[in-house]
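Sanity check

After download, print the first record. It should look like this:
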Amino acid sequence: MKTGYDVIIRPIITENSMELADSKKYVFKVAKDANKTEVRKAIEEIFGVEVAKVNVSNVSGKTKRMGRTMGTTSSYKKAVVTLTADSKEIELFQSM
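Expected structure tokens:
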């Protein structure tokens, strides 16, 4: 059985995700085999908040070039988690 820490890999901190945090939307990198239900349970377990909605998308790797050789960055799954209006905020994003 997977724990919440197996599902949630790390938060994604960008300018765009910090703007979303003002409206109680938080962006996380999640395991590739995780679904919306598992992400919801993991966020509620780890941070102790109420989740209203979860959007999940697959991000494909970009093609990069180093001299003559070509390669790609790794692909990953991204989840945008929306909290309910009466839920508390996640402190991890508030300190940035």
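If your output differs, re-run the checksum step. Summary of this record's structure: Strands lie at 8-11, 25-30, 51-59, 63-66, 69-72, 76-83.
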